Amino acid sequence: MFRKRPEPAPAKAGVPVTVEGSDIRVPQGVSAAAAVLLAGFAAIRETPVSSAPRGPYCLMGVCFDCLAEIDGVANRQSCMVTVVPGMAIRRQRGKRTVAIE
Known about the structure:
Blueprint: E1 15-19, E2 22-26, H1 32-38, E3 45-46, E4 53-54, E5 67-70, E6 73-77, E7 88-91
């Protein structure tokens, strides 16, 4: 029914991604949320009001607790994004800034 959490990929295998500025390799086909967990982070974002740490919860796109900055785009549901080579993932901290035009 449930799959085990993937182990980090060996040094020469897997997909190279950057999580919070650190280069790691993750198994092919995992989500960006799984990459953050594999990088050793328990929290993937902070709430905008109290800065409470939040970890991925449902991992199927329902709860929005996995919001992260992926390749420079904030507020992406990282559980719904499959990693690609060279992807840059940053944990989302605090509230998002809005550009006023």
